[in-house]
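Researcher: Please predict.
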Amino acid sequence: MQKSNSKNQTFIKKAIILAAGLGTRFLPVTKSIPKEMLPIIDKPCIQYLVEEAVASGIKEIIFVINDSKLSIKNYFSPKKNEIKELKNRLKKTKKTAELKLIESIEHLAKFHYVIQKEALGDGHAILCAKKIIGSEPVAILFGDDIYDSKIPALSQLIKQYEKFKTPIIGLQKIDKKDSKKYGIISPEKSQKLPENLYKISSLVEKPETKNAPSNLAIVGKYIITPELLKTLEKSQSSTKDKELRLIDGMINYLKTDTTKNPHQIHGLKIEGTRFDTGDKTGFLKATMHFASKRNDIK
């Protein structure tokens, strides 16, 4: 687990982990196992995100899943009778460390589970959790983006939110030829900000290389505000297709900027090594990377 860096972080207490996707890139195994539950060594991908959130000061975690991914709920919030036999066996065989390990997972945070009944985009998935979010800023973590970093990736974003009180987007510099795989930001040119921090003037979803406004790509980590959430909700009627994406809400949020109440979004280039575990190559790289850090198998 990543070392906690949450001493003075009091603003963000809830995080949403989006895990309702169908995992088609990992078929056929995802026909019965959620891709977020695929193990990196002996720990599911999604647990890395939970531990990142907890190490960043998060107290409540909201999983947005579909009704075929109840194994995520069974893993983090198992019913007593479902895990009783395993715990009894570990007690009898005096495997104390293993018992403590599985029990600790249940107490990492307060867990909530929301079902997204239709695959209508990540923006729609966030709105499914609207009642639990309430009127407070919330962290958003996509189920595929895992970082290995000295300071948890989410903690880096929270630190910037505490300074600016604006939505914060996690960024990564990419080769422009890969821009059609990502949302890309256009940073303001006249800005006096620390290195790796950007004020965003506009965003575009998966542009062709020639149309990409920069090489700063959006990764699956955000802090969103109640105002942005309201804009996202209003954006449902303006989407070109049935899917509502978080980037739609952010684009409209910047468009509805006013002189009296200027809407700002900042982006932070996250420090650390990123793995896209929703991609087969990225998943293998993550497995090799974390295996090499373990004394028992490296």
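Model: The first strand starts at residue 14 and ends at 19.
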